[in-house]
Amino acid sequence: MKFELANAIALLTRTPATLSALLRDLPDPWLMQNEGPETWSPYDVIGHLIHGEETDWIPRAKIILEHGEARPFEPFDRIAMFEQSKGKTISELLDTFAQLRAENLRELQSMNLTPETLEKRGMHPELGTVTLSQLLATWVVHDLGHIRQVVRVMAKQYGAEVGPWKAYLAILGRD
Amino acid sequence: MKFELANAIALLTRTPATLSALLRDLPDPWLMQNEGPETWSPYDVIGHLIHGEETDWIPRAKIILEHGEARPFEPFDRIAMFEQSKGKTISELLDTFAQLRAENLRELQSMNLTPETLEKRGMHPELGTVTLSQLLATWVVHDLGHIRQVVRVMAKQYGAEVGPWKAYLAILGRD
Fold first, then answer.
1. Rounded to 5, what percent of chain B is helix, strand, coil?
2. pLDDT for residue B174
3. In the predicted model, is pLDDT for residue A174 greater than 80?
């Protein structure tokens, strides 16, 4: 499937409502447990997505459009949310994520990107040369990856409770 | 995390809205592509979940409550949906799933299950003795596993489009 801006936006638009439908008002044991040391709970993941909205996707798109490969992206802080989320409820985090995502998609639309500008290049500090369309495709896949992480973390809480059915449930397996 | 009926129901209640938020009105390329031969598209998954509501979870719970281990469950047809979904839109499938899930959760509530009845045993045709609470925990994990499958299938459509970022995106990896 080739990258098309409208298809990417269709998915990016749906992520906040998807996570809200899944997580809002869910009992705390589902929200706060993780997969062990140095892993994230569903609550942590929403904080991470918020931080991405603030510092990663649109800021990097702007760097590409304004500076091209001349200015590498700022490295992304993958654990900033542990401080930023402190004291917030899951509903507050979900609302913040939805609001920031909506603002960022408005900003993306206002860029009036064309097939030509989507091929503009930027400089990732570790990965080297990347294009704007690759950045936007990554934004989509990053969303999907964290939805996957959230459901995997929750499923694992029932790893023992399913009894013999564990053999049939790939989500309880190796990753 | 120990099985508790209220926590299980909290998740089972949210699955239809979660999948609706993610998939309804999404452009067809996201909905209809799969991971290759003998794999399922997001569209196929919703049909599979519908078939589970019709023939798997509550019918098996009833068999446990009425017959215990004396009557093995009917084997579940994992690919019945390829016929049953034919000609239906994704919105129709999502609506059907939501309606059946709501009915089944009403039926579950009406069983007035206690910690004792949750330990009642049934006979799985392949796995042998299982308990009612294991069946219900499996229902939850089965939901989560198919949400995970849906997002993985969609993410893979952008496997090439993310360029060098592929190295950072576990969802594009081995499973």
1. 65, 5, 30
2. 53
3. no
Out of A20, A127, A165, closest to residue B165 by CB = A127
Side chain identity at A60, as an amino acid letter? R
Q: What CA–CA distance (Å, rounded) separates A70 from B153?
A: 35
**B165:A30 CB<8 A:** no
Q: Taking Cα atoms as reference points, which of B129, B127, B4 lies closest to residue B70? A: B129
Among residues B173, B157, B40, the alpha carbon closest in space to that of A7 is found at B157
Q: How many C-beta neighbours within 10 Å does residue A112 have? A: 7
Q: Does B1 touch chain A (CB under 8 A)?
A: yes
Tokens 């059946």 correspond to: B100
A40-54 mean pLDDT? 96
Q: Which of A147, A150, A172 to mutate to test the interface with B (most CBs of B within 10 A)?
A: A147
Q: What is the mean pLDDT of chain A?
A: 95
Nearest CB to A10; choose among B10, B26, B128: B26
The answer to whether the complex's ipTM is over 0.85 is yes
List the beta strands (DSSP E) in B34-120. none
- Percent of chain A that is helix, strand, coil (3-state, to 5): 65, 5, 30
- In the prediction, which pLDDT does B83 show? 84
Burial of A30 (0-12, 13-18, 19+ CB in 10 A): buried
User: For the stretch B43-76, what's the b/e string if a residue is b when 16 or more beta carbons lie within 10 angstroms of its beta carbon?
Assistant: bbbbbbbbbbbebbbbebbebbeeeeeeeebeeb
Q: Where are the beta strands (DSSP E) in A22-138?
A: 121-124, 128-131
Q: What is the pLDDT of residue A123?
A: 97
Find the angle CA(A2)-CA(A151)-CA(B172) to the nearest 5 degrees.
30
End-to-end distance of chain B based on CA atoms, in angstroms? 26
Rg (CA), chain B: 18
